[in-house]
């Protein structure tokens, strides 16, 4: 029986906390939590997400077999640069950031092959508009797709280890290039967030008049609640994601705006509404 | 004990069928179903949504205490015009259309006070992206808001009867003017439908390349599924709704597009994302 893996989770909020809970429940891994905030480590300890928790990376990192960055996207490469010297050759380094191109690119100058740790970008499609370790759940990754975005020189064995790691917490790994990933999430994740924000802001403005406000509130149907649900997400977390994926997101927003503008200007043509319905019925399941 | 009310439901699809099931389960009303299509009457009969079903309005309408139009919005006023002469003075006529201004306006020339039936517009905020009597449910209206849009000359007693009717199937009546109603639903119901259509169409175009298609499909997260759910709704039904509410919907779409464009152009400013989050947290529940 091989030794239990030593897994260091950097950042123990919703995703990091859930990963710790999942590893503890489903694997033999020794789980180490690391956060620079003492209060975060205390809250995560109370939730039982790790075996040992630290604020000091010098104590958390030695001997790590796997390191997973679960911190905001813009912090991942800078933190990895600080931590790299403490990682043993062959350690597997991953992140859970919502954007992959800039992170994979940035990591090239941190980990360059032979004699260093190995980096593979990961993006488990799990989470919610909630945040914080209080909302962590051991089954957050069960059934979720986890995108893995290896670089051209990633060794196949490392990719297999990464896939096995995510399978061990219940996720389905899918290999995709960083750029295809970033374009796809711009459209299917980041743009829906901006749309929810824009719809919420518009309704907030319309609702400044009390009678309109009362009508909006009492008539808000399921479609509106669905469309604005993710406006409840943490603005600072999401600004970091939008910034990291600004070009694909801008393109997705422009394409969407042109399509919506066309639907309105041409009075919702039947063939287009039918095509949207077909997409709904076929694309997502087919 | 008063005589059971005779309620004629015109159009026995999702809403009309659910109304019949609810009345039969929760009240003593005698439920009459009417549709011009024999096949629809047969399917509704199999679902047990009425006591008697007809394709012939001359047999369905005599003696009606309440008539509820559950047909597509653009058909409601023309049908009422055909049926008006068969209705007894004091009969209560309602509809369940998603747009109220044009219907309330059109009905003024059909029912003009003393000696005729009384019309009150209603809009129960229930339904789904599904349609047809097969999806009807006796509890569809339970807990739902039902907008009632009386005209200036609607007798208070008639408004009370309408409110009692909707309470009897579990809905919460809310009185609102037709124009305020139509502006509100343009923003909180009709625009989210158009947004879902536009997002689905954009994704459909991006997904024409197989590798992008695979990535879109495997990375489509909850926010995307939520945002496109209503794209599955019946295009013809919704085109009628959009057409009937074209001016408020156009204004809502323009305001939304300007807001979204501003978010992208100014790189998602922190104060606006915070305002959207506040709206999400406070407006809908406060």
Write the layout of secondary structure elements.
2 copies of one chain form a homodimer.
Chain A: E1 6-10, H1 14-26, E2 30-34, H2 38-47, E3 52-54, H3 57-60, E4 66-69, H4 73-83, E5 92-95, H5 101-108, E6 118-124, E7 145-149, H6 156-168, E8 172-175, H7 178-206, H8 210-219, H9 222-228, H10 235-244, H11 246-265, H12 270-283
Parallel strand pairs in A: 1-2, 1-4, 2-3, 4-5, 5-6, 7-8
Antiparallel strand pairs in A: 6-7
Tags for this model:
52% helix; eight-stranded mixed sheet; 12 helices; homodimer; 286 residues; alpha/beta
Structure, described:
The structure is a homodimer of 286-residue chains. The first copy, chain A, has 286 residues and is α/β, with parallel strands linked by helices. The first copy, chain A, folds into 2 domains: 6-176, Rossmann fold, CATH 3.40.50; 180-283, 6-phosphogluconate dehydrogenase C-terminal like domain (6-phosphogluconate dehydrogenase C-terminal fold). The first copy, chain A, has helices at 14-26, 38-47, 57-60, 73-83, 101-108, 156-168, 178-206, 210-219, 222-228, 235-244, 246-265, 270-283, and strands spanning 6-10, 30-34, 52-54, 66-69, 92-95, 118-124, 145-149, 172-175. Chain A has an 8-stranded mixed sheet with strand order 3-2-1-4-5-6-7-8, with helices on both faces. In chain A, helix 2 links the parallel strand 2 and strand 3. Chain A starts with 5 loop residues before the first strand and ends with a helix. At the A-B interface, helix 7, helix 8, helix 9, helix 10 and helix 11 of A face helix 7, helix 8, helix 9, helix 10 and helix 11 of B.
């Amino acid at each position: 029986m091989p030794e239990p893996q030593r897994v260091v989770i950097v950042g123990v909020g919703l995703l990091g906390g859930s990963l710790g809970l999942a590893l503890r429940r489903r694997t033999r891994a020794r789980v180490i939590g690391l956060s620079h905030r003492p209060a975060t480590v205390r809250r995560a300890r109370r939730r039982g997400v790790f075996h040992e928790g630290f604020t000091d990376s010098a104590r958390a990192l030695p001997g790590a077999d796997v390191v997973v960055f679960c911190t905001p996207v813009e912090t991942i490469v800078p933190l990895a640069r600080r931590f790299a010297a403490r990682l043993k050759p062959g350690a597997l380094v991953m992140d859970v950031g919502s954007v992959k191109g800039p992170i994979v690119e940035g990591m090239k100058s941190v980990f360059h092959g032979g004699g260093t740790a190995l980096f593979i970008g990961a993006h488990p499609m799990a989470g919610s508009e909630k945040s914080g370790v209080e909302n962590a759940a051991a089954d957050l990754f069960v059934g979720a797709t986890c995108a893995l975005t290896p670089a051209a020189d990633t060794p196949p064995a490392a990719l297999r280890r990464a896939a096995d790691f995510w399978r061990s917490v219940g996720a389905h790994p899918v290999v995709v290039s960083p750029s295809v990933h970033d374009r796809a999430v711009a459209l299917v994740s980041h743009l829906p967030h901006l749309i929810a924000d824009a719809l919420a802001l518009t309704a907030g403005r319309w609702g400044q008049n009390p009678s309109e406000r009362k009508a909006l509130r009492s008539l808000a149907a399921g479609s509106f609640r669905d469309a604005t649900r993710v406006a409840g997400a943490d603005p600072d977390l999401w600004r970091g994601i939008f910034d990291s994926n600004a070009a694909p997101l801008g393109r997705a927003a422009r394409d969407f705006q042109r399509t919506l503008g066309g639907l309105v200007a041409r009075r919702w043509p039947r063939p287009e509404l039918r095509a949207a319905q077909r997409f709904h019925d076929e694309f997502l399941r087919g």
